C-alpha cells in the first residue's frame, strides 16, 4: 500500500494524528495491531488534565508537572503541553466527546495526585478513555478517505537510500492469502503504538502494550531516552498473588481525589506523615510509600478505604470500578479495596523534538511511545491523554509544512534475531522481581542475566507472537541497562543502593542500537541550576 503518512496505533495519539494529517490534506493509512479500540486509551479512568477553570492557570499546571518530573522535564515541552492543552481539549469536545458536567452545566473538574488544583475532566464517572476512544473512532470513521487496517502488527521501519523513513513492514493477520507480511510505503511514519507495560507480569496495560514502537525505533537507529522511568500506579486492584499477571484492573487515583484514603491492614492511614499532599502526593511518592508498608509488614497489598464517600457518590463517580470490584466479590461501599502497585506508564520512549520528530528523519512518535520531555522522571496524573492530544496536533502541523516525495525503500532484513514466544512469561516474571518498583545493582544484574539467557531462545517462525516476544526482550534489555546505569533514586526510579537523587545524575540517558546490533548508552547532563 502507498500513502503520504502511515500512522501506527489507534489510541488517542494515533487517531488524533490521523485526523490532523487528513485536515492538512494528506493521504493517511492507519494501521493497528488488533482492533481499533484495543489500545490503552479506552482503559483510562481518571481523565484529562487541562486548565479549564478560570481560577486555575497554565503556570500552576506547569509547576505541578515540573515538580512531579523531579528535575528532568523539558520545561519548553511542558509549556507547550499546558498552553496548547485547553484548546485541544475543546477541539475534542467539538468532535463529539462528552465530559461529565455539574448541575449548572459547567465541566466537572476533579483532582489527582500531584495537582494543586481541580483540573481533571472525566467522562462516564470513571470511563474517560471509553468516551474519548468512542468519539475519536467515530470521527475517523466519518472520513471515508482515511484507510484503516486492523490486525496488522508493525514489524520494521523501511528507509530510503538517504536514511529517511519511507514506510513500515507489517504482518497482517487475515484469512488465507491475505495473511502474511506486507508493507505501507509512505512519505512519513508516525508511531503511536503506546507503552510497554507487558514487560512486567503485573501491569495495568492491555496485552497489546508490548513496546513495539520503541523496539522498532531502536532497530531503525532512533534514539530512546529515559526508559528506566517506568511509572507504577499505586492502586491496581489486588485479587490475590495468583492473579498477579496480565492486565490488572485499575482503581483510579480520582478516587483519592474524591477523598478515599490508603490504609494498612490494621486500618491505619499512612500517607499523612509522608507528604504534604498525603494520599494525593505524586504517584511515585505514593507507590513507594505503599511498597514500604508492604515490605515492613510482610504483606502483598494495602487497602483503599472509600466507604465514607457513600454509596451515591461511589455509584455516580466510579461505576466501572465498583462493577469490577463487585465482580471480584469486593463491595467498596462496605469494605476497603485491596490494592497494590502495578506497572502503568513508560515515562521515557523515543526521543522527539517539540514537533514529534524522532532522530530518524521522517519518523515521528506520539503518545506513550514517545519521550517529548513532558514527563521527566515521573508523569503527573492525567497528563498522558493530554500529551497525545497536543503533540498529535503539532505533528499534523509539521507534516503539513513539507514532505519530500515518496522514496523507494531499500531492502530490509526483517526477521533477523527473532525470539521464541515462550520467553514472554519468564521475561515478565524476571522484570517484576528485579526491575520493578524497587531496584538494586544486584537485582538488575540478576535480571540482565535472565534476559541474556532468554535472548538465546531464537525462533524461525516469523509470526506476530514471535515479534512481540522479540520486542519485549529489546525494550526490557534497554530498560534494565538504563536502570543499572542510573545510580540514584529519582521519580519513579527507586534504587535501594542509591537512596538519593544525585545532582550529577540530573540528566538524560540516551540509548540506541549501533550498526552491529549493540545497545549503546550516553548520559547527557542538564545544565546546573543556578540559585536565584
Ligand atoms: C488513574 O485514573 O488513576 C490513571 C490516570 C493516569 O494514569 O493519568
Question: Keywords, please?
Answer:
single chain; 32% helix; Methane Monooxygenase Hydroxylase, Chain G, domain 1; alpha/beta; 532 residues; five-stranded parallel sheet; 13 helices; five-stranded mixed sheet; globular; binds succinic acid; Flavocytochrome C3, Chain A, domain 1
Folded structure, characterized:
With 532 residues, the chain is of the alpha/beta class. Among the domains are: 235-341, Succinate dehydrogenase/fumarate reductase flavoprotein, catalytic domain (Flavocytochrome C3, Chain A, domain 1), CATH 3.90.700.10; 423-504, Methane Monooxygenase Hydroxylase, Chain G, domain 1 (Up-down Bundle). It has helices at 12-23, 58-68, 75-94, 128-142, 212-219, 254-257, 283-296, 310-317, 319-327, 383-401, 423-434, 441-454, 464-485; strands spanning 5-8, 28-31, 48-49, 109-110, 120-121, 147-149, 152-159, 165-172, 180-185, 188-191, 202-203, 224-225, 230-237, 246-247, 261-263, 302-305, 337-346, 349-351, 363-365, 370-371, 438-439, 494-495, 507-513, 519-525. A 5-stranded parallel sheet has the order 6-2-1-10-19, covered by helices on one side. A 5-stranded mixed sheet has the order 20-18-12-23-24, covered by helices on one side. α1 packs parallel to α4 (128-142), α1 (12-23) runs parallel beside α10 (383-401) and α11 packs antiparallel against α12. The longest helix is centred in the last third of the chain and has 22 residues, at 464-485. The radius of gyration is 22 Å and the shape is globular. Succinic acid binds at residues 45-46, 250, 252-254, 381-382, 384.
Amino acid at each position: 500500500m502507498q500513502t503520504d503518512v502511515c500512522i501506527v496505533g489507534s489510541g488517542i495519539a494515533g487517531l488524533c494524528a490521523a485526523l490532523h494529517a487528513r485536515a492538512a490534506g494528506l493521504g493517511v493509512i492507519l494501521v493497528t495491531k488488533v482492533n481499533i479500540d484495543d489500545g490503552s486509551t479506552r482503559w483510562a479512568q481518571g481523565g484529562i488534565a487541562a486548565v479549564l477553570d478560570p481560577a486555575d492557570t497554565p503556570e500552576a499546571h506547569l509547576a505541578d508537572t515540573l515538580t512531579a518530573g523531579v528535575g528532568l522535564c523539558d520545561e519548553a515541552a511542558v509549556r507547550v503541553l499546558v498552553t496548547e492543552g485547553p484548546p485541544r481539549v475543546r477541539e475534542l469536545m467539538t468532535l463529539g466527546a462528552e465530559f461529565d458536567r455539574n448541575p449548572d452545566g459547567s465541566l466537572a473538574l476533579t483532582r489527582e495526585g500531584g495537582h494543586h488544583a481541580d483540573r481533571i475532566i472525566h467522562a462516564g464517572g470513571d470511563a474517560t478513555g471509553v468516551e474519548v476512544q468512542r468519539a475519536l473512532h467515530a470521527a475517523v470513521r466519518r472520513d471515508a478517505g482515511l484507510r484503516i487496517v486492523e490486525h496488522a502488527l508493525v514489524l520494521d521501519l523501511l528507509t530510503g537510500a538517504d536514511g529517511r523513513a519511507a514506510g513500515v513492514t507489517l504482518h497482517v493477520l487475515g484469512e488465507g492469502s491475505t495473511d502474511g507480511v506486507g508493507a505501507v510505503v509512505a512519505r512519513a511514519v508516525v508511531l503511536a503504538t503506546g507503552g510497554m507495560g507487558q514487560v512486567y507480569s503485573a501491569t495495568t496495560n492491555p496485552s497489546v502494550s508490548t513496546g513495539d514502537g520503541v523496539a522498532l525505533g531502536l532497530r531503525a537507529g532512533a534514539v530512546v531516552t529515559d526508559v528506566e522511568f517506568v511509572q507504577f500506579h499505586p492502586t491496581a486492584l489486588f485479587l490475590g498473588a495468583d492473579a498477579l499477571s496480565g492486565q490488572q484492573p485499575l482503581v483510579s487515583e480520582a478516587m483519592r481525589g474524591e477523598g478515599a484514603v490508603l490504609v494498612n491492614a490494621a486500618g491505619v492511614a499512612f500517607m499523612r506523615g509522608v507528604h504534604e499532599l498525603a494520599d494525593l502526593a505524586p504517584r511515585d511518592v505514593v507507590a513507594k510509600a505503599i511498597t514500604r508498608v508492604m515490605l515492613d509488614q510482610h504483606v502483598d497489598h494495602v487497602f483503599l478505604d472509600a466507604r465514607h464517600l457513600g454509596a451515591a457518590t461511589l455509584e455516580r463517580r466510579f461505576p466501572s470500578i465498583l462493577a469490577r470490584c463487585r465482580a471480584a466479590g469486593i463491595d467498596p461501599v462496605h469494605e476497603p479495596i485491596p490494592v497494590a502497585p502495578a506497572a502503568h506508564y513508560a515515562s521515557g520512549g523515543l526521543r522527539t523534538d517539540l514537533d514529534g520528530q524522532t532522530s530518524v528523519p521522517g519518523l515521528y512518535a506520539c503518545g506513550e511511545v514517545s519521550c517529548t520531555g513532558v514527563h521527566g522522571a515521573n508523569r503527573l496524573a492525567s497528563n498522558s491523554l493530554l500529551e497525545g492530544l497536543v503533540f498529535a496536533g503539532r505533528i499534523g502541523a509539521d507534516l503539513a509544512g513539507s514532505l519530500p516525495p515518496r522514496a523507494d525503500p531499500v531492502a530490509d532484513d526483517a526477521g533477523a534475531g527473532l525470539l521464541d514466544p515462550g520467553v514472554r512469561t519468564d521475561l515478565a516474571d524476571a522484570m517484576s522481581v528485579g526491575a520493578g518498583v524497587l531496584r538494586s545493582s544486584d537485582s538488575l544484574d540478576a535480571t540482565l542475566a535472565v534476559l541474556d539467557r532468554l535472548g538465546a531462545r531464537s525462533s524461525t517462525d516469523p509470526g506476530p507472537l514471535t515479534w512481540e516476544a522479540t520486542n519485549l526482550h529489546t525494550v526490557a534489555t534497554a530498560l534494565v541497562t538504563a536502570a543499572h546505569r542510573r545510580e540514584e533514586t529519582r521519580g519513579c526510579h527507586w534504587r535501594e543502593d542509591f537512596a538519593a537523587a544525585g545532582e550529577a545524575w540530573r540528566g538524560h540517558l540516551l540509548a540506541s542500537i549501533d550498526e552491529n546490533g549493540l545497545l549503546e548508552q550516553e548520559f547527557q547532563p542538564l545544565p546546573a541550576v543556578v540559585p536565584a
